[in-house]
Design a protein that fits this description.
The complex is a heterodimer of chains A (about 600) and B (about 150). Helices cover about 30% and strands about 5% of the residues of chain A. Residues about 1-30 and about 340-360 of chain A have low confidence and may be disordered. Chain A has a two-stranded antiparallel ribbon. A two-stranded antiparallel ribbon of chain A has the order 3-4. A two-stranded antiparallel sheet of chain A has the order 5-6. By secondary structure, chain A is mainly alpha-helical. Chain B is α+β, with helices and mostly antiparallel strands and about 150 residues long. Chain B contains 2 helices and 7 strands. In chain B, the strands form 2 sheets. In chain B, strands 4-3-6-7 form a 4-stranded antiparallel sheet, with no helix packed on it. In chain B, strands 1-2-5 form a 3-stranded antiparallel sheet, with no helix packed on it. In chain B, β3 (about 75-85) and β4 (about 90-100) form a beta hairpin. The chains are: A mainly alpha (about 600), B alpha+beta (about 150). Chains A and B meet through loops of A and β1, β2, β4 and β5 of B.
Chain lengths: ~600, ~150
Amino acid sequence: MRQTRLIALAAAFATVAAAMTFAHHIVHGQSQPPTTIYNPYPTGILPSNITPELARVLREVNTIEAEAIVQWHAIPPPVVTGNPPTLQNTGVALTEILGKLMNFDRTISPFNNYACASCHMPYAAYSGPIPQVNLTMIAYPGSVHFRANKRTAQRYTYASYFPPLQYDAVQGLFFGGNFWDSRATGYLLRSPDAEQAQGPPVDPGEMGNPDTACITYKLSLAPYRPLFEQVWGAGSFDITWPANTAQICATPNGASVFNGNPTPVALSPGDRILSNNDYDHWAQSLNAFEHSESVSPFTSKFDAFLAGTYTMTANEAAGYALFNGRGNCNSCHLDGRSTAPSPSVKHGGSGTGGKDTGTTADVTPYFTCFGSANEGLPKNPRVAFYYETTPDFFGFTPNPGGFTYTDFGLGTFLRSGFGSAPNPNSSWRQFASTVDGQMQVMTARNVALTPPSCPTTEAPGPYFQKEFFHNGYIKSLKQLVHFYNTRDLYRNAVESGNCPAGTTEKVNCWPEPEVPQNIDMTTGNLGLTDVEEDQIVAFLQTLSDGFTTPYPDINTYTGACMTGGTAATQGNSTIIPADLLRQFQQMQR
Amino acid sequence: MNGLPIRKFLLSPTILFIAVLISLTICAAHLSHAQLVPPAPAAASVHITEGPAIESDKDGLAIIRWTTNNPGGSAEHFGVVHYGTDAAQLNQTAKNHIQLNQSHPETVFRVRVDGLKPGTTYYYTVGSMGGTGKVDPVKSEVYHFTTP
């Protein structure tokens, strides 16, 4: 009995403590971020202008959100007819604009400071919008400043075309899914792109809601709630919300007060089902937006070339020939040209093929095989995640392992490992060791897309600093092509920041791969000249949308461009020297 | 058939039903993989047109490179090296992914052989296989190299 009283007393204390914690940042129903900034980083990891840059992006987000509201109200109401009932005439437009409104809605986050678009802005092909973040900490700060995850923000463009993750028994390879590690499988919604949209809202390092019901709750308060109900049905939000819902939803995921509970909003079973359905509709609406011509429009120079309305320059044409030829880029970044010719008789086959006939088999090629590969990227010590070994204000420690963390990509996901998500198919688990280090083969489309005010990714510019591959180690397209061309020619058994004297990292020294298993050796020593590398870059630049029709919202960038230097060494000033890196590592021991 | 004319038999409801079923099955199978590139026809024979050679050898890691006619089959392929310090016992294996380019007449295979001891002679053969282990019909002689 006495023990029971003690437990009750302890529970009461815990409740009061939790309430005090909530009260710390709930002011009249408005969530406020904690005054204590999470900054476990050594000097130089965070960009010096991170705060004004985050504010700049939020202003741009607000601008586009306001525009989307106007666009929504300009759409005529649909005629609901047919069986099954269909929003005749404007159902597509309404669903797409609903997704756009969601994408640019900062109020979905616990502190009203983080929209999906915070990491995915149109002028970067819906990838990372802050040049200095792309240059330094790689992953974007979440709603809790400055928690951050470990990988670059992937472009939305054409992500919706990836099929559900599947193991192809003929190829012996996984295809499909979304995210670098394919953990958004599409197993339920049959759209990896939609399921991708369900990750960041509850990821502690991103938007960071503690419960998916919080997204439903905030949607029910959104100005576009009538649109949601118009598209997905009246009664979508007929949910009885517990009195403490606002408080819970203003506390970020990972907070110790939740004790690991993924559903702290105490809904009835019926309301939980309704909320889950709404969260699926959130995902499907965002998928509609990402699949729309606002995001994935096939309006590049290359599309015009396929349509016969654009003639490539000599450099672009030479780059295209290399992309298909010695560069071998199109073995994974499928360009839709040529079918599958059998090996010629001369080479032991029975067909007359073996040559690229130039026949266009696909008029809207995706420039990806939807597969995954380990390209042997070096570990990037710039990734903020390696430094997040201490708890933040809420008691959450993003990465207890610090530098010992290794990003095995798809392999970690198949094991349902730390930093990924539960694998919904146990039969895939057996393949984990064969895919360690593999990351999704992203489409090459829009790899070069930048704001018109900073019209290139390449130094000396004026340029918009992007980041490439999953860990942002590569900072320019020149470096990207050079990496494929010389990874093995200039390989060194060193870590980043420790290249031998007389060499220059990323120019004639490539540090060892983070994951040496399962490396794809299709590239790595292609024998391309410096000029040929530049020609492939010129071809990649033909894949940017907006040539035949202006890319929507591309002119919303209000930040500055970078200038100076060379594309070959772009960003090298931010490489952490080996001795300094060792100090950082020793501090964690 | 009991004398049923062949045309009448082919147009019979049972046969038409089976034909529709088969067609639907084939369509469904193709649709489920509609996004993927189907494997190219396998080459009748595969032969080495260049190499094998040691592309690089330092820090205990050698890269062995050779070229064959395009073996066809699954786009996902592996270069495979069997190696050892005794020419009669090539009891170690290294393999790496290679993505076949179906529009290329030839394929370059490159394999990383790791964990090599310095100043040691290694013997090896090379070969290749599809993504699920189907071995290409190619054989190489036994070659050797000595690590620095």
